[in-house]
Input
Amino acid sequence: MELLTSVIADTNFSAVDWGVVTIYLVLSVGIGIFANRYVGNLSDYIVAGRGVRTALGVATLTGTEMGLVTVMYSAQKGFTGGFAAFHIGLISGLLALFIGVTGFIVTRLRREEVLTIPEYYGRRYGKGVQIFGGVMLAFGGIFNMGMFLKAGSMFIVGITGMQNESALTVVMVVLLGLVLFYTVMGGMVSVILTDYVQFVVLSFGLFLATGLAIYHLGWGHIFDVIIAEKGEVAFNPVAEGSSFGFDYVMWMAFLGLVNCALWPTAVARALAAESEASVKKQFMFSSITFAIRNIIPYFWGICAFVFIMGIPALKAAFIGGEDGATTLDSLYAMPVFLGQILPVGIIGLLTAAMIAAFMSTHDSYLLCWSSVLTNDVAKPLLGEKLSDKGAVLLTRFFVVAIGLLILFISFVYPLKADLWDFMAVTGGIYFIGAFALLAAGLYWKPASRFGAICALCAGGLNVLGLPAVQGILLGALGYSADRIDLFHVTFSSERVGLGTVTLAVICMIVGSLLVPDKHPYHGKEES
Amino acid sequence: MDFWILLWKLVFIVGMIAFGILAIWVTIFGARDIVHLLATLRGTEDPEG
Output
């Protein structure tokens, strides 16, 4: 704590900046109250009455997928991996473009006019798969969201230079309280309106901070320092000795695909779109933001590394000295860097933009998981007993309950890997099974209920990619190692992920062929 | 290594320009879409609400 306090004390954040942040927060709460007037039924609450056109769709998709947590984990990847991390953003953008051009999965889901992905499971594979899939999605999603709050609050503490020991906890509670308020009030209408405001503020903040970072460090100097300090591995993701490697690039390619076509918060935008054509356009245009949402923060992380290498005290705090003393979490590097180079006023604007990013992601994610729990778990179980107004009320209850749960996870879970790798693994618990169910369900007629259940179970095995889970498992078996190592093959998260994807696809195919459905569902025709 | 340096420089510069154009377009036309969305929702509003 003492080391952190001394490092963040030099920030330029002032009373003027607190004023800018406060104005922004009041505006967000006002939008929540305003949007509440437009929520009539569950469809208005979850998919905004399906009245979202392309430009607004791009704003809301960007607002959701470019959260503060994205900025934080990407900056950490840039700090540790250098320019080689850019491959993740490039792949992500190209795959979003592919989804936009072909409409792979998303247009067919939009055609089904479902509210959530598990609702499609119910139509295609039956009620049991809908409930099981809904529980898997909510479990993976909420676990995945567990670190959002902490990472976002670390940014606020790092950039504002808060000195209090309990600052991180206070920031987490205040931010969560604000998000819960306007999400509960206005549902998707409020989420979309705030996403638009957040897109405008965020875009401006990103350009300004990037320009000032280049101006402060010098374009050529950034590359010179990275070449001198890290060498080829900081540019070539498949170079020998790289922290990425071929397995990692393959895993990122799969993640790029699922981030656009399967990740429920992204798909929710497709489901809220006015038409199938609008869905395709939304993804085509958003391919730019799918790339840039990673690339800009990678660049900030790289700039933070260059900046820190030039200041001995910061270098000792983040990289470590010869005495082998404990170093600061690299997640703090980027906010500390920005806190020291941005001038008064601009730093408040950027913080407001980042809080905007934080809130736009949290509201969408809270709404997404809670609507899945209502629509795909409670509704199939309660049937007619759950009225439309009761469903809205229950969704609001889940929003608050999930919020409290992520606050709890923030306190108890020990983050042992890079934040991005943690999120890839926890997200995989849901999306690996979902990939098999949606791709097969939408494009392969023999896909059956039994195959779907096997694939969902296989996807759940991805939890083994977490170092903490491997540690617990090995500890229970009496081993002291941190990672499973079989026949000299280490179970890294990317290998576990790729193995689980293969297993889920095999389970889907073999299970469907062995136990076919008696009355298969053929889907809706193209309108 | 020169190939990778050139590639990432290009990706960064092209990405920033494309994002700049997109941001202007979304800011202008997104405001128009909000008006349309609110009009749509007024039409589907629950009469009891």
Remarks:
- The longest strand of chain A covers residues 485-486.
- The beta strands of chain A are 485-486, 489-490.
